[in-house]
Each structure stands twice: as structure tokens, then as C-alpha cells.
Amino acid sequence: MYKEGYGVEKDEKKDIHHLEEAAIGGHPKARYNLGCHEYRCNGNTERAVKHLIIAASQGDNDSIKVLMGPLFSWVVKKEELAAALRAHHAAVDATKSPQREAAEAFDRIQDTIDVEDSN
Q1: Euclidean distance between CA atoms 51 and 30, whole angstroms
Q2: For 28-44, what is the HEC assignment?
Q3: pTM of the full predicted structure?
């Protein structure tokens, strides 16, 4: 909201503050966004990697992709990446349930129907 100025005045400090609050509260995408901000805006690669590892450990897929990609491969130690992958897998497994799988299957069917209707 503050980053883009949707309904409020753009304010990077408030944007970062709210991302930090969400990250402290356990929101993986907020951690991912903080990691991206640290790398892009502050040039702090080590801090970015720390945020990304935490987000990946909380089950964030984008963080795993970034950590395994060429951008950070020279910074992330193999042991850190292996631990993050194990934690990511455990976090994803912990969110699995029959109800969630049924909802995801329903969403896939709806997406297929929407695509067919648009043609």
C-alpha cells in the first residue's frame, strides 16, 4: 500500500515498517519482500540472504527459487541451502490437509472452466 501509494501517500519508511512488523509476525512473503528490498535498495546481500532463508524456512516458494538461482549462489553456503530446503519442505508438508487439497483441486477446475469460457 505505502510502496505504491494506493489510497495513501507513498512512504518507503512506512512500507518497510509494516513489512518488518509482518515479518516479525511470521508472514513469509513479508520476509521475502524485505530480502528483495535489502538487496535491491540497500545492496546488503548478506542481510537479504538471511531474510530469504527465513522466508524459505517458512514455506515461501519464491525465496527458495531465488536462493537456488544464480543471483545468490555465490553467497549461500551449501549447508545453509540444505537446511533451508529441509525446513521449506517441512513447512509445506505441515500445511497439507485433505481440505486444502480439495480446495486446490476445486480452484484448478475453476481455472479450467474460466479458460474454456474465455475462448
Answers
A1: 9
A2: HHHHHHHHHHHHHHHCC
A3: 0.73
Taking only the tens place, the pLDDT of each residue in 11-42 is: 788 889 989 999 999 999 999 999 999 999 99
Task: State the alpha helices, DSSP H only, in 1-97.
Answer: 12-24, 28-37, 45-57, 61-68, 78-94
Whole-angstrom CA distances from 118 to 107, 108, 115 are 16, 16, 5
CB within 8 Å of 2: residues ≥ 6 apart: 8, 9, 10, 11, 12, 14, 15, 18
Q: Is the dihedral of CA 47, 31, 73, 84 positive or negative?
A: positive
CA separation for the pair 43, 37 (Å, rounded): 9
Q: How far is CA 89 from the centre of its chain?
A: 14
Render pLDDT for 36-77 as a digit per residue (tens, 0 to 9): 999 999 999 999 999 999 999 999 999 999 999 888 878 888
Residue with cell 497439507: 96
